[in-house]
Amino acid sequence: MRPRDVGHIALLLLVAVLLASCGGGDLNAPTPAPSPTPGLAGRFVYVASATSGEIAEFSVAQNGSLVPLATLALPGGARTNAIAGDPLGRFVYVVRAGLSCT
Amino acid sequence: MTTATPFTSDTLFLYEINRTIGALTRVPGSALAPGFDPATANLRPDRVTFHSSGRFAYVADRPARTGAFSRGFWAFLAQASGALGPAVGPFTTPATAPFLVGDPSALALDPAGRFAYVTDATASAVSAFSIDQATGALTAIGPPVPTIQAPTSLVVIP
């Protein structure tokens, strides 16, 4: 290999390294959309019903749409009128509705 | 500062919180800013849900249990004074055959404030909405997703 060829190969390697460090050098690449604040985006949605005594589970896709997971029956055929979660995302609390007085 | 719904009139009461001792003091008048008349807007306030930024509050129209379908949720800009308004809305769940109108029963927001989720008690479905960060307006993301019968409550977990 001639010294001139070695110089060309070294130059090509340098250009390749520079392009790689610049993300390929594509000036027309779209600016990435801002990502949601870590830890704050909704990951799951839980739906409760006052009449069916069930909890429906959903996961949340990147665009906010819902993906159904499982449906759980409350213990003992209980019914609920409220569901809440702790802000750390560790627990869900389900109010068991009392018997109607009607 | 928090709000509470009245029993008989179509308005909102506003209370200021004493941040030292927690005591509530009623702010005279309505929490709804002058210029928003709930009677003219056909809004029967039922529940209030705040956006995580504190910039918007969603006020629900009274749900179907009173004999009429809920007309959905209004998005109010929250002023520094605690007053709510101006407002955009109402936002409702899409009509789902065979039902001619939506019947939104509960609303929950994701903690990041990007998306809202609304259950429909009559259609037994749940809808996802994106939130306009300037006005609080809701735009549906896809069709309603079928779920358990007559959903009345929901929660978004981070």
Q: Any descriptors?
A:
heterodimer, A: 102 residues, alpha+beta, 3-stranded antiparallel sheet, two-stranded antiparallel sheet, 5 strands, 19% helix, B: 158 residues, mainly beta, 4-stranded antiparallel sheet, 3% helix, 46% strand, globular
Description:
Chain A has a domain at 44-96. With 102 residues, chain A is of the alpha+beta class. Chain A has one helix at residues 3-21, and strands at residues 44-49, 54-60, 66-73, 80-85, 92-96. Chain A is globular. In chain A, the strands form two sheets. Chain A has a three-stranded antiparallel β-sheet, with no helix packed on it. In chain A, strands 4-5 form a two-stranded antiparallel sheet. Chain A is 19% helix and 31% strand. The longest helix of chain B is centred in the N-terminal third of the chain and has 4 residues, at 38-41. Chain B has 158 residues and is mostly beta strands. The two termini of chain B are 25 Å apart. Chain B has one helix and twelve strands, in the order E-E-E-H-E-E-E-E-E-E-E-E-E. Chain B has one domain (31-146). Chain B has a four-stranded antiparallel β-sheet with strand order 4-5-6-7, with no helix packed on it. Chains A and B meet through strand 1, strand 2, strand 3 and strand 4 of A and strand 9, strand 10, strand 11 and strand 12 of B. Strand 1 (44-49) of chain A pairs antiparallel with strand 12 of chain B.
